[in-house]
Structure formats: C-alpha cells, structure tokens
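CORE FACILITY INTAKE
Project code: CF-77B
Contact: R.S. (postdoc)
Sample description: multi-component assembly, two entities in total
Requested service: structural model of the whole complex
Turnaround: standard
Below are the sequence entries exactly as provided by the requester. Do not edit them.
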Amino acid sequence: MGPSISLNDVGLRYENNIVLQDISVSLDAGKCHVIMGPNGGGKTSLLRSILGLTPFKGEINVNWTDSKGKIGYVPQKATFEPSLPLTVLDFILLNQSRSPLFFNFNKKHKVKALAQLARLGMADRAMFRMGQLSGGEQQRVLFAQALLDNPDLLILDEPTNGMDDQGVRYFESLISDLVKEQKTILVVHHDISAVRRLEATVHVVNGVLIESGDASEVLQTNKIEQLFNHYRSTPVADVVNDSTVNSEVA
Amino acid sequence: MDTLRLLASQGAEAGWLSESFSYAFMVNALVAALLVGPLLGGLGTLVIAKRLAFFSEAVGHAALTGIAIGVLLGEPPENPIIGLFCFCMIFALLLHFVRNRTAVPYDTLVGVFLAVALAGGAALLMYVARKINIHMLENVLFGSILTITDFDLLVLGVSCLLIIVGLMFTFNRILLASISPDIAKVRGYNTHFYDYLFVMMITLVTIAAVKIVGAVLVGALLLIPGATARLMTKSMGSFVLLSSLLATLSCLIGTLLPMELKLPIPSGASIILVAASFFLIATLYRIIGGRS
C-alpha cells in the first residue's frame, strides 16, 4: 500500500520570487493524484518539495502504513550527453546494482534490467546510447528506472513529454494497474484530455492551490480557461482569496 | 621489489629484455606506471562524465604551489609530499565547497582558483629558488623516473589500493550522482558525499602520479586516454576498461621509449605525447570511418 501525503502551509520562494504559498492539501493513499496548472505555476517545485529536493516552508508528511517504502521518480527532463557511451542498459544497471559497470559480470542483473526495459518497450534499444534516444524514448527509460524497485510511491514529472500515442496509452494502462495495486501516484501532467481518461484526483496549482477534486469536477470545460490562466495578475495572497471563492462556488 | 629488479637484471643480461631493464630505477618506474596507469584511465572516464576536465587540470597546476610551500616548510625538494598533499586537498575541497554555494559558473570559478594557485606558486618559487636549485623542481613538475624510490612505490601502491577499493563500491553511485543527481537523491544516495569523495580521489591520484607523470601533466593523463576511449567504445564498461588500458600503455611506452631511444625528455612529457598519439589515431579513425 502506498503512503498518504499531507501538506500543511507549504511555501517556497526563490529570492523575491514567490513560487508556492499556503499549499495545504491531503493526498489519499493508494490513489492517483494529478497536479495541473499553467507554466511557471509551481507544479515541479511542489513535487521537488515533496521529494525533499528543494527546501520549503511549512510541513510535508509522507505517511507510510508500515515501514518506509520505496519511491520511484521520473524527472521532468534528464540531459544525457550524446557522446558519452552510456547505454540504456548501463543506465538501468547504474540504478539497479552497486556492481561497477566495468566489473559487472552478474547475468541476473542484466536479465532483470532487460526485463524492465522490455516492460516499457525499450529492450531492443538496450545498447543504444542514452544521448542518442529521442525525448519520448528517454522518458520511457526513466520510467523503467522508476519502476525498478516496485515502488509504493511513484512521483512523475510530465512523464509523457515527447511520447508517441502508443507510449501514452501504455503509460495510462500502467498507471491504472499500479492504482489497482494500491500504489500512490503523484503525477504532473498538462494534457487535459489524457488526465480525464485517468481515474485521478486533480489538484490545480498556480502559486497557490486553486482547486482540488475529481477530474470530472475540476476539469469542466467552462472552468478551464480560468484555472489555467498563465499570468498571476494579482499578488499571490489575493489569488488565495480568489481560489477560496472558486472552491466555494464549485 | 628486490626480486623483481634482480629478475629484470638477469633478463637483460640473458638478452631477453632490453638493456634498460638492468637499471633499478627503470624497473621502479615501470612498476609505478603499471600501478598508476589503470587508475588514471579509470578515474578519467568519471572526469569526462562529470565534465571536470578543467578541474583535474587545476588540481595538477595547484601542485606547483603545494610543492613550493612544502619546500619552504623544510621538506626535501625532491619529494615535498606533505605540502603537496595538504595544499592540493585543501584547494580541491575549497573549490568544490565554494562551487556548491555560489551562482558563479563552474568553469569561471575553476579559472579563478587556478589563476590564484598559479600566481601564489610563482610568487613562492622566488623564495624557494633561494633555498634550492630551481631546476630540481622540474622533476616534480614534469616527472622523472630517476627519482622513484621504494617508498614512493609503497605510497603509490597504498593510494591505488584505496582508490580501487573505493571505486568498486562507489563507481555507479558517483556516476549516477553526476548524470542524474535528483534520481540519485531520491534513491537515498548522499550526492554531496560522492562528489567530495570523487574530488578526494582525483587529488590523491594526482599526488600519487606526480613522480612519474609530473604535477603539471597529470591532469592530461586523466583526460586524454578517456577522451580516446570515448571515441572507440559503445558502453560504459568498455569505456572504463579501454581508457585504463590506454593510460597504462601510455605510461609504459612513455617511460620506456626515451630510455630505449636515448632521448633526453622527461617521462611526463613522453607519456603525454604517447597518449596524445593514441588520441590522434582514434580521431583520424573516426573521421576516415565517418563515424564521428
């Protein structure tokens, strides 16, 4: 069973730029939660705060039912130098095993890594350099990496970026399977129609938490333009007040 | 070592080995080359992956100041190991410490540190020149196989052992921490620890290789075999192994060649020229093969 996550008055600023303010929300265990919002709205910063990669104000608790479980993470973007002879298989082995790549003669490690790649349709690219892959293929490999330890909490930052239709469909079925296994999934996504297909709770963030709820409630056609307004024309504090009004209306 | 030197001498007398092997210093130098070559080549791949070529060069150049400080504090000019070790380690750790706490681009920061270290070294050398014959420093700066003693081999052996054992357990994590630090952190790896560990390894191997390659040129031997291997390999495993092989061959050939050809050039320069030849051949091969 995946953990629940509670955020209490979470805030984040880079010098004078307020990125997040007063985020308080509870994310239920064993469900898929989608964070949406306009560019620069603080979605990635929120994920990074939950992962402990960015210092933040306030309180974030990841509540595991038993002992602390495994976390899988797919970053928004990973840059791989094309000339570095780091193959897809190397990258998976790096994450999977401590045996140094130049001294890894353990066949079991390779078999496990290849099986993981096959799951994401990347086994035939195992000997390609990471830097030679397309963006969508790199995302698949990063996804394979995140699933290596059969994580209970999966945090994905725009995982379908650059993926083809087949990849997106596979991603959606995988998310559905993982939710059935009661894993907690937290995903930043910007494709509204794709999010509607997922059975997920949607949290719209634009500096503050604008709205939370089932996808069918939050992503109503008449609300979308307002929810995804790129510009924060008013100070964040005012937006908080507005969002409270919006929530009450909803 | 005595047995090895005796065997080499007998081999030379019997005509199986060239006359050079009858000299004890040559056997010492070749053993040093065999120890330091694989290590420099292997670590060099991480230097390339982490884009720290300029950093390793800076640590090598900082050795000039370390040597000057060591000599001024009374260490023997042919082996000022404490001054060298302390200054290079402080230089490298301080540079990395500042890097993590400033928005200044890393290459600019390394450039500033390098310039300060070189300027400090140049200033101190004026005082050093009053105490010793300044030409003695050439051996430390550009390498000299004549100066390698059994004690140096012992220090080299222990350093190599420490680094190799360290690398066996940390290679994957150091690499992951450099190519994808966020994933490494989420997996629970202390990326700062691995960064500092790597910096310490680079500094240690720089000091260990000073006698044979020279402080100024050791950065090049960390870089060139790796750069050559990168052109020729298709996976990280073969990258590391080929880089180690090329660095070892460069060290062996570069040590042996001047003796065999009776060329009056320092071992460091010779080793780097051999390594550079491999790089040139690999580059031409790639260009001609159209696989750049």
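Facility notes:
- Chain B has a mean pLDDT of 88.
- Chain B has 13 helices and no strands.
Invoice: internal transfer
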